[in-house]
Amino acid sequence: MRESFELPHILFEAAVLRALEEDVGSGDLTTEACVDADAVATAHAVAREPLVVCGGPVFAAVFRRLDATLIVDLAAAEGARVGASTRLWTVRGRARSILMGERVALNFVQRMCGVATRTRAFVDVLPVGSPTRIADTRKTTPGLRAIERYAVRVGGGRNHRDNLGAAVLIKDNHIVACGGVTAAIERARAITPHSGKIECEVDTLEQLDEALSAHADIVLLDNMSIELIVEAVRRTRGRAILEASGGVTLERVGELSRAGIDVISVGALTHSIRAADVGLDFEQGPEWA
Question: Which of 21, 39, 267, 269 gives the lowest tally of CB atoms within 10 Å of its CB?
Fold first, then answer.
């Protein structure tokens, strides 16, 4: 059974509106000059390369926000792997409205498909049966976090904390500002709700030992070599969830998982992604005669 993905409209409607306001401005001079007001058309969003489908709800929202009379068909399922030349989504109605929304719609879905496709690549190189999770980070495009994190889920990854208030994650600068690993963990525990977990970043085995002694729930091993990670797993012995981050490439995923890492967080899933190649093709039909 195919997994169902949900992206509530409230999480992206404001981003869609801002993008349309930015692009449409006072109108579309080219479209108004070249296309009759009563012309109708059918256009298809087409994959120009193999990709993981992502962004149908946002694609539809762009056009419906511009013109409620437009009809949008989301033929391709979110999360599906498709080849080049596959039709993903179709929009029908006033040609002017379709042309005005084309660039904004493609800007969103090209990035979303890019994130989902890259995430799937990381998930695919996990060893068969591995319990290790691939997760994102907060290194997202300002204002687009909700849709980028949705794209990670569509690609088979998991989300890290949504925002600063979602969980405690003690980073290196917190440790310096607070005066040490133990002090930071103890102060965090004093105000953390009973349902919350405390995660602490470490970059040495000595800091790991200190975090474990202070009963951190999750320890993030930052930029550690595979040799240090193997030793960190041995020392931890299941007393905390271990997360690896920093410089993670596709080539390293297998060895990190086999070493016993529980979570691999990858900032590159969102912060430096290549947009997928998706285009919008107009049909030549009787409506243009």
Answer: 21
